[in-house]
Amino acid sequence: MAAVSFSGLNGIDFGAIIDATINAESIPLNMLKQRQTDIQSRDSALSTLSAGISTMETQVTALMAGSLFTNATANSSNTGVGSATAGSDAISGTYSLHVDKLAKAQVTASTTGFSATDAIVADGGSLSFTINGTTTISIDITAGTSLLSLRNLINAQNSGVVASIVNTGASKKLVISSRESGATNGFTINNTLTNSTGTALAFAVGQSATTGNSQNAQDSVFTVNGIDFTSATNMTTDAIPGLSIQLSGIGDTEIAVAPDNSTIETTLKSFITTYNQLRQFASLQNNVNSSTGVRGPLANDSVLRQTLGDLRDVLLTANANGGKYKYLSDIGISVDQTGNLQFDEKAYTDAITDNLADVQLLLQGSGSVQGVFGALKNKLQSLDGTAGLIKSSRDSISTTLTGVASQIAAAQARLDLRRKQLQQQFAAADEAISKLNAMTGQLSQLGSSKLF
Asked: For the residues of 128-194, what is the DSSP string, one character each?
């Protein structure tokens, strides 16, 4: 429909009349839009609540891990000789480490050197490597081959050796190295290279896995508490149960292994922080906005009330785990006057030092008896945004928003139609008044005319 315009010559602002009418009739639409905004705000707040619950679930899962109470730490008195990393099955104690030899990879340099990497080093013969009884595919040379090209041919085989070019200052040499350390990874070079135009690439006469090398391959040799060990590498996990030992030098060191309970405390403190942040979020929902006078979207919300109530019940209820400690407050985790959790460092240290096993029973339970965090995990799963109460609430909100959006679209369409109708009606009135005014002007002129 073409745009409707008014003459503006009749002293009546029909546009303002239409706007006022539409504004009055827009009240139901505006109420729908406000309802939509309120529902969206509640959904956004529930999403924030869901994120907090998800974080708490992750922390609770960590607090239920069996390895949490078997962590250990290993310290070396001389890291220049060796260091260690403790696994979950490490046994506390002190271990004497003596290192006689470090594992090494074989390194063999060519006896012939060349002025440049593009110098021809062979135009005939072949080259292969025997590694632990197995010989690589022969590299057959049929034309002039440079030092650089030969290096690339060796590396392209991706065998147990790797080739590189070193500059000694006087010349450039080809260096062959074992990819891995250890005596079994030593190699013999099978070399029949020839060079009709100059010096052929060559290695020491009689070179083998144990002679004619810049460095022979060897195993590490060490003792732990007087027991002899060898290894193809300088890393071993076999000498001390639960320990990965890194050898770094010849000599002696003491490796002390002790329980490491720091992760328990760190994870508990993270959980307490998340819980208190959740309570702060809930408290803010009931605060009145100074500019709008409106409370948060979850003020007095049943989902938020149930979430806080369920969490509080689990954290404050006695746990029948069969151990010494029945309440979290027994190990230093209590509720202050504001309802937040607080951590008593001394009470926690005393409890975990006095009886670590009973602390584990309180937190993790045993067998069919759930600890505090096993019970809490069940509650969190019934609340979370994946499959719990928050998800079902947000699903319901999504359905409601779809319905409200349809109502808004229908109401807007009715108002648009109403505006067109009013524009047509007032355009007709404007035209009629204009015609009437014109006729009145003509009659007035006729009445004032002189008759002759």
From this structure: EEEETTEEPPPEE--S-EEHHHHHHHHHHT--SEEEEEEE-SS-EEEEEEESS-SGGG-EEEEE--B
CA dist 426 and 138 (Å) reads 100
155 vs 10: CA distance, rounded Å: 96
Compute the C-alpha angle 239/245/261, nearest 5°: 100
For the chain, what are the domain ranges?
A: 28-67+263-392, 72-103+219-260, 107-191
Coil, strand, or helix at residue 27?
A: helix
Tokens of 21: 């009418």
Per-residue pLDDT of 338-397, as tens digits, reads: 999 999 999 999 999 999 999 999 999 998 899 999 999 999 999 988 889 999 999 999
Give the relative orientation of helices 262-285 and 302-316 as an angle to the nearest 10 degrees.
150
Which sign, positive or negative, has the C-alpha torsion 62, 67, 70, 73?
negative
Q: Are strands 365-366 and 369-370 parallel, antiparallel or unpaired?
A: antiparallel
Tell if the pTM clears 0.90, that is, is over it. no
CB 381 within 8 A of CB 307: no
Give CA separation, 335 vs 34, 268, 313, 340, in Å: 39, 14, 12, 5
